[in-house]
Design a protein that fits this description.
Largest sheet of chain A: 2 strands, antiparallel
Distance between the termini of chain A: 33 Å
Shape of chain A: elongated
Largest interface: A-B, 42 and 42 residues
Oligomer: homodimer
Number of helices of chain A: 12
DNA sequence: CTGCCACTACTGGTCCAACCAGTCAACCAG
DNA sequence: CTGGTTGACTGGTTGGACCAGTAGTGGCAG
């Protein structure tokens, strides 16, 4: 059996989770949260635990706290930041496939541009990319290994693009993937991606285009490869 | 005179800022932070204020806190999320132009894909887009108004793309723009974008492609338009 | 001498009970 | 109606205490 760690999450973490769920489910009338003291009483924890949770919600731009006044819920569509992905992707144990599709679209867009930039700025990374692709071809049935190698492949491209924001976006997207795996089970996620992982010829083409310094070909082949899963999931 | 609000940041906010700067400047030996009690003593604030700041740093994946053990700095390149943009863009009063360039590249990539998706999913938004473009053409010298209208234009496209993550990314990028304006002064930022704002013909082409439901033309025209400022800033 | 274990001195996590500092609405004097 | 006062809220901050987990250290049993 897979021994999952027994949560034992800090209280402020649990409070954060509960408030987050309530906010995303729009459970607060008029978007006004109860006072810190009331929340502390309701959750039966100390006020400091509530405050630490609220600080995080504030950081995520989900609430607006003001001294003297009341704490209000903000519209995450207009105020939220990309980091909400992990929280929006799986809510109440259910996967929001619309959000998942958004993530795949974004992955394709950024992945393609990163490949183009990589071709210009780090064509030499082509050797390492090719090696990973060969590695993947050697164990076409080990989905877990394919998944790991695939991450290595795209991480190398993003690194080669020299674009720090693409690197950070990749972190966010991979985080979402991890959340998804935790919710659906890693096996299911691997199966969903199987079709893509097996197109190793396409990965080789991307690597070749990068090695040739051909930005537009790298962009095109990368986009086509990454779009496959979008249309499959749509 | 421009009446700027007198900041009266909460202590935990100030502590957060100080720690953030120290972390990004790699000022902690071995990447180990002092204990909460020591930090509280050093900053001359209560330990709770330090804890609230640390919770936020934890949320940003900048530190790893563990009970009993010590608090360690994480590598933001591999752990950080996109929301770090605002903090990385301006550090110690200096603009990091490499990060700014990254943001412009990402804007172009996502803006182009959003335009393509918008053409497919919301071609009718073309009327509203056209109207904003006309509005911009009517006051080509009012840079502040051009800037505001430009935000409206692209926000409409992102909304039309139906991609929630693009919406959240837009929020993050606009946040970065605001930080930049706060650091350099709004006038300077407007001047930098002036060249782009004046290409209203291009905006009309994007709107027309969306109205025609021509995804590829929308992508191409949008990308070319948004890339102008990248190459100018590079 | 070696290996294990208990002790100790830290670390972060939680709580309580205040008090300070803003906000807002009700009220009252002009 | 206008303006200021008041009081009951709100969040912000403090100090001090204790719980809980970690890791280094010393000494004891083998």
């Amino acid at each position: 059996m897979a021994l999952a760690p027994v949560a034992a999450a800090p209280l402020s973490e649990q409070v954060y989770r509960r408030l987050l769920d309530a906010i995303l489910a729009d459970e607060f009338v008029e978007g006004v949260l109860p006072s810190e003291r009331d929340l502390a009483a309701a959750f039966e924890v100390n006020r400091h635990a509530v405050r630490e949770a609220l600080k995080r919600l504030q950081q995520s731009r989900l609430v607006d706290v003001s001294q003297g006044g009341s704490t209000r819920v903000l519209d995450y569509r207009t105020e939220g930041r990309l980091d909400l992905l992990a929280d929006l992707l799986v809510r109440a144990g259910r996967v929001d496939w619309k959000v998942a599709r958004s993530a795949l679209e974004m992955r394709a867009s950024i992945g393609a541009d990163a490949a183009a930039l990589c071709a210009v700025r780090a064509p030499k990374s082509h050797r390492a990319l090719r090696k990973v692709a060969d590695e993947m071809a050697s164990h076409p049935d080990d989905l877990a290994a394919l998944d790991a190698d695939n991450v290595v492949f795209w991480t190398a491209i993003v690194e080669g693009s020299g674009n720090l924001l693409y690197r950070l976006s990749l972190n966010t997207l991979l985080d979402g993937l991890k959340i998804l795996a935790g919710s659906l089970g890693a096996d299911i996620v691997y199966q969903l991606a199987r079709e893509e992982y097996l197109q190793i010829t396409e990965l080789r083409e991307v690597a070749a285009a990068i090695g040739a310094g051909d930005a537009e070909r790298a962009r095109k082949t990368a986009y086509e490869h990454l779009s496959r899963t979008v249309t499959a999931a749509g």
